[in-house]
Amino acid sequence: MVDVGPMDFPHVPLDTLTAMNNDPLPASRHAEAERLLASALKALSELDNEIERLETTLSSLKAQRPRDLAKIDLYRSAIAPQRRVPPELLSEIFLKCEPGEIAVPIQPRKIPWVLGRVCSKWRRISIATLGLWTDVGIYPGVEKNAASQKDAVKCVLGRSRPMPLTSITLKINNNLLSLRQLIAPHVSRICNLTLIGTSASIAPLLSFSPDLFISLETLAVHVEVIGLPTEPITMVAGATNLRKLRWNVYCPYSGLLHFPWHNLTHVIMTDDNPFHSNVALVILRQCASLIECSLSLSHHENFVDSESLAIGEHLASDVGGARICVPQLEVLKVSHVYSGPGRPDKFLPHLELPKLRHFEVHTNTYTSWDPASTTTSADLRYLLERAEELVQVHLGWRGGEPITDEMLRLIGHGAILPKLEILRCVLRDDDRTLAKYLDMIEERRTAAASPAVTDFVEVELKIGVYQRSGNAEGLLGRADRLHDERRRVNAYYLEMP
Fold this sequence. Notes:
By secondary structure, this protein is α/β, with parallel strands linked by helices. It has 13 helices and 16 strands. It has helices at about 15-20, 30-80, 85-95, 120-130, 145-160, 180-185, 200-205, 275-285, 305-320, 375-385, 405-415, 430-445, 470-480, and strands spanning about 100-105, 135-140, 165-170, 190-195, 220-225, 245-250, 265-270, 290-300, 325, 330-335, 350, 360-365, 390-395, 420-425, 460-465, 490-495. The chain is elongated, with a radius of gyration of 42 Å.
């Protein structure tokens, strides 16, 4: 075997020779190896330095890139089309955002506040857009924030000046903000005012001096606890634009008798505010312009304060047997609050309603239909015979059968209510009642062949029973067969508890 070592290749490059085997180098080549090692170490050091330099440059370039992108965005923004949008047009766009009610305490995440946080220009324009600040709701919070809330109220109310304040809602459960003083400079601009609170907190606002609320169109009063305002309602004196009143107070208030009713077109007296029928009649007698009215009547044992009863009895002689004409009234909704024995005073027989198109009467009782009640069948017939323009009738008397057999026959033939299109009744009787109404619907279809009679568009019959009879399903099937593409007939039984 021939032994070949590094000394046998004196001219082979050292790196190649070293890679060939692990034999020791000849002494003559040690110096060469040392020189090459030093050179390689120097080259590595230079390479590391270059890498470090390049990494530093790369880091710098990477850091510079977002700054350049930001400049690009800035320069693009500088020539962007929206910068050329005129402030007037931007203001119109803001108004299309439908900000809704601006509440105090402030809600910074809602419009218009959020618009003002986009940029200084948008803030200037949003503040200058008066229409953004015309719907305001003031709901005072805790006492420790009273000062900041007062400043917010002043700021918000002032930003709409001199435009009308389309809607102001004041919830007044305390006097922390002295709201009367805060809104006093703006009352001439208020179009729609809602007052919510206790009687004591609302009374000072109702007693504003006359002739201040010159722009007022709608007034809503909600007293949250039992109690009557003690101050006269002077704020509405001179409010010649006032057309709508919503009164939600637990008890009637004698100050309403001196209210400027003659200009009102819409009056809503909720179920929480039952009236003696004489009070209601005296009010309606003054409503020459009334178009829609919702009110609640109560039998005298329901009145919780002696003042209301005394007012009604005092006005009985004033009303007498006179007919009261409300010439423009088109919608009348009456809720009869009845919870005990007695004879409620009559109401409908006193009314002449030549333009009535929509009539509703409801009661909270399940007792039988009383001939001496506020709305007897005779009274109802008197009203229906004279209301030739009636299109909708809703009878929610849950205690009996308000429409007599003869009246059903006349309605079916079109002799009364010839223009009636919608009839809704809540009844409590046996199957015979439902059968009579279905007969009437069929007769009306025949009568509608005459151009003077309109066929039904919708009939809804709710029959309250304790237990269904064996005929129930057959009658419901008959009602379904009367239903077609031109007329909806819905009949169903309500199981009584």
